[in-house]
Amino acid sequence: MGRWSSVIFHAGLLVVIMAGLYGLAFQKRGFVQLIQTDTFQGRDKDWTVKRLGLFAGKFDLNFQTHLNSFVPAYWDNDLIKEMESSLTITDAKGESKDFSLSLRNPVNFNGTRIYQSTHYGYSLGFVLEREGKDPVITQFLLDAPGKKDKPFVGKMDFPTTDYILDMKFYPNMIEPSFYATLPGADLTVMEEGKKIFRGKVLFTQRAWLGKDSLTFAQIHYWTGLTFVRNYGMPLVYAGFALGTLGALSIFMLSYKEIHLKVVEEGDHVRLYMGGQARRYKALFSEEFKEMAKRLEKLLT
Predict the structure, then answer these.
(1) pLDDT attached to residue 252
(2) So what's the pLDDT on residue 299?
(3) 126-135 LR contacts (CB < 8 Å, sep 24+)
(4) Is residue 80 a contact partner of residue 72, using CB atoms and an 8 Å limit?
(5) What is the per-residue pLDDT for 127?
(6) What pLDDT, on the 0 to 100 scale, is given for residue 278?
């Protein structure tokens, strides 16, 4: 075993390198933002961000992912402690299964690994009502601030209109908090460069924009999920196991050789003895001398 230790070790390294290159060539990685209660259909065109290997094709999942809930937890210094998502995954056959996802516990499903992203925040839903037109609801995603005394800040267009909303969202209008216990927003609405509204709007309240009205109607968490399909990982693990076996063999089963040469000289027989070791040569030298003494004693 010791004679082949080096070969086994380097074979393991070669397998790891080849598997890594194979994985990079065919790996598929996609990131998506989901609002609580939303469903990701898993189509290639629906990814928020997508990164594919050189020879990878489209990244279509064979299942749907529904975000039931998302719950962040914080330390006393406002740093994030944990993030947990409750998922319901429905496969191509229509069979559903619930999963719990967190930063430390990814989910494996049908060859795809799902990771909890550290990106999250609040999604605010506003309903615009215009005279003679159907109400329009739009979700605005705001990133979480680093401190609970800072507001969730965002500025964006309201689709199909000329309105631009500039908002500072406070989960609690009375005291600093990350949790939406008394939510409200400082809202500024612009239209064609003119300010048509500015003020505080509490959850469920309505702001009048001339004849139009804007209602603060929904509050949900949003979070990011990362989906990874890596085809070379089993080979990588096998290569690491093989390399580890080889390394242990090199140190624990050190290869040694003993050479004996028998020479007949008339009525006498002369025995020559030599040896070599690849590691621990000083210890082998003492062991070799002891073996030589025992052999000499036995023969004489």
Answers:
(1) 79
(2) 84
(3) 126/158, 126/165, 126/214, 126/215, 126/216, 126/217, 127/214, 127/215, 127/217, 128/158, 128/161, 128/163, 128/212, 128/213, 128/214, 129/212, 129/213, 129/214, 129/215, 130/211, 130/212, 131/211, 131/212
(4) yes
(5) 95
(6) 77
Residue ranges, the chain, pLDDT below 50 = none
Domain containing residue 163: 121-222
CA quadruple 12, 14, 17, 23: dihedral positive or negative? negative
User: How far apart are the C-alpha atoms of 209 and 279, rounded to whole Å?
Assistant: 84
Residue 209, in any domain of the structure: yes
Q: How many domains, in total, are found in the chain? A: 3
Asked, for residue 131, whether it belongs to a domain, the answer is yes
Q: What pLDDT digit, counting tens, does each position of 235-287 carry?
A: 888 999 999 988 888 777 778 889 999 998 888 888 899 998 877 888 889 99
Identify the three-state secondary structure at position 290. Answer: helix
Distance of CA 239 to the CA centre of its chain: 22
Q: Name beta bridge partners: 45.
A: none
Strand partners, 212: 209
Over its C-alpha atoms, the chain yields an Rg (Å, rounded) of 34
